[in-house]
Amino acid sequence: MIPATSPVADNLAETTYDVILVGQGLAGTTLAWHLVEAGQRVLILDACEPVTSSKIAAGLITPITGQRLVLTPRYDEFFAAARAFYSRIEQRTGQTFFHDRVATRLFKSDDEQQNWTVRGRRPEYQAHLLDPQPAPLLDPDLGNSGSGGFAMHGAQLDVALYLESSRVALEWESMALDWQGDVTLHPDHISVGRHRARRLISCEGYAAACNPYFAWVPFNPAKGDILTVRFHLPVPPHCLHRGIWLAPTGEPDIFRVGSTYDWENLDQTPSPSARVEIERKMKDFFQVPYTVLDHHAAVRPIITQSQALVGMHPAHAHLGYFNGLGSKGSLHAPWYAGRFTDYLINQTPLPDEIDICKHFKP
Ligand SMILES: Cc1cc2nc3c(=O)[nH]c(=O)nc-3n(C[C@H](O)[C@H](O)[C@H](O)COP(=O)(O)OP(=O)(O)OC[C@H]3O[C@@H](n4cnc5c(N)ncnc54)[C@H](O)[C@@H]3O)c2cc1C
After folding, report:
1. Would you say 323 and 308 are in contact if contact means Cβ atoms under 8 Å apart?
2. How far, in Å, is the centroid of ligand 1 from the Cα of 55?
């Protein structure tokens, strides 16, 4: 082991790190900040692709989601970690990227409505609802709230701004790492070109499925398409959900609208049929004239068990992993990064449910 403060480290100060992270998406950026807060010297290597899952994500954080209207397990714990973390990084960077948002969920079927009449009465669900509920839920000049719905307290991370402002503050280098060609494993450290570190951690998103050291972690990734639209009437800056979602951008009347799930075509090419699907679902309930300004697609890093995993490689003690943030990266990344940092710095055992070694074997 090379402690960061050893003479060796001091002599090689410009090239020696405690941790090198591969990937500057939500996972890599959030882990980097936690490690820096813990006093670690961190370098991020990032391929600087113009489109990635994190760069196009809407950053929505919503307590009650999905067709079955389920409260995200341990939402309060994840949300508290997320709010505290993003607020600290806002202070460090001088930028504001975490916003409280009202999220209105409209029912798209009688089944959903019936489901909610039972579930929505529970105190743990009620705690997330606006009190009193707005009436009407959707201004009839904008659209049709049909079979009703509910308004809840949510939040939104401006992911692109979070990544950009973090990049200014963190140490990083533009590099598409080739794990076989660029990485050398030594008994007590790893080296990547002229850099050396005690640990090298994959935060590569979906690309981790091709990482030769972690190919044993099975992925079930899903491509998502998302549109940016300008509405031609004033629309309040709330999130609206009904089969798809409309999310404000901070620019008046410009919203992100998405998204689709495609498990077959795992590429970043915007799909015309996905655009048709998004526009059809939007026009089903939202009648404001609009212009599509752009259309992007990226692949969500979903691990087969639909939960992110962290930890060190069972046979290569210097290689680590933080991937699989799936559809809820903005909510989950800070809590996971916190647990992983505690493990790396203080040897606090990882909770079984997020420990890569407790789920899969090489
Ligand atoms: C359309 C869409 C909408 C979404 N909306 C939301 C939302 O509203 N709320 C939410 O919470 N989540 C949302 N998500 C999911 C969210 O985007 C993901 O959870 C999150 O982006 C995953 O972050 P990541 O860092 O793991 O992966 P990525 O964002 O893919 O980042 C990986 C990074 O690593 C780099 N990289 C990969 N391999 C290498 C290598 N070998 N060398 C160097 N660099 C490398 C990549 O270039 C990239 O920068 C959405 C996703 C999509 C596609």
Report:
1. yes
2. 7
